[in-house]
Design goal:
7 helices, about 270 residues
Length: about 270
């Protein structure tokens, strides 16, 4: 019937599937014995689980070491020895010597002076006040007199700030005369392509770093990443021969600025 559930594990379906095929190949026997094999596996697994769960209890029961609910305590009797007898002829220990007394600090009693011997100080007279020092005085002098200011004590030299400022944090960036376009024209006019790099078709960019001094000179020229073939040396030579730059400005004063820039080497036609 179409409404009933189709059971493909029935022996009738197995015969239909393997009708006209090689039943001795092995698949036929495996599918034929599948229900029996599954039943045996389930029974065997159940028995093993039951044995593993009950084995500890069986072993403890056989060994007679089942846990007892009443906790047993072993009482040990301790026998204390009698104290030694007191010898009446032994004299008692001498008493401790008395501790030395510490004298307490006492304030001397006040001295009472008779009233007839007390003499009050009389206020100063006008004549005594005239002779007394009034303290600060105003001294009249020449208004056109030159006022002399004492020179400062110690080292009064002004220490010049020669620290190097990074180009990313300076207020006014150092710049080649003519800006970027002027720098490009300078490189195009003065840079010479090294013969070794030309023969080996070496192209790329050389990353250089240098310091723009307060007067615009370029110092501490270094190659951070080169391409070889003489291009690194040519980049350093062009920077050393460059005219003075406009220096960087920080807080209204010229400062030394660390600068990093790439110099491109590219053959014509590429």
């Amino acid at each position: 019937m179409l409404g009933s559930k189709l059971d493909i594990f029935k022996p009738e379906w197995l015969e239909v599937v393997f009708n006209g095929r090689n039943k001795a190949y092995g698949a036929y026997e495996l599918r034929k014995e599948n229900p029996k094999t599954t039943t045996r596996a389930v029974i065997t697994g159940t028995v093993l689980i039951v044995v593993l769960v009950t084995a500890p209890m069986i072993i403890r029961y056989i060994a007679g070491i089942l846990p007892d609910d009443t906790e047993q305590f072993k009482q040990t009797e301790v026998v204390l020895a009698a104290p030694p007898p007191i010898d009446k002829d032994t004299p008692p220990p001498p008493p401790e010597p008395p501790k030395p007394k510490v004298d307490q600090v006492r304030f001397p009693p006040p001295v009472v002076v008779p009233a007839e011997k007390v003499r009050d100080e009389e206020p100063p007279t006008v004549e005594e006040l005239k002779k007394a020092d009034p303290g600060q005085k105003t001294i009249e002098g020449d208004p056109n007199a030159e006022i002399k200011i004492d020179e400062p004590v110690g080292n009064s030299e002004v220490v010049e700030d020669n620290s190097i400022v990074d180009f990313s944090s300076v207020e006014v960036m150092p710049e080649f005369p003519g800006g970027q376009s002027g720098w490009g024209k300078y490189l195009q006019k003065n840079m010479k392509y090294p013969p070794i790099a030309r023969e080996n078709n070496i192209t790329g960019r050389v990353i250089v770093s240098f310091v723009v001094e307060k007067n615009g000179d370029l110092t501490d020229i270094k190659v951070l990443r080169g391409i070889g073939g003489g291009c690194d040396e040519e980049a350093v030579r062009v920077l050393k021969a460059a005219p003075a730059w406009r220096p960087g400005v920080q807080n209204g004063r010229n400062v030394r600025v660390a600068y990093t820039m790439p110099i491109f080497f590219q053959l014509a036609g590429q």
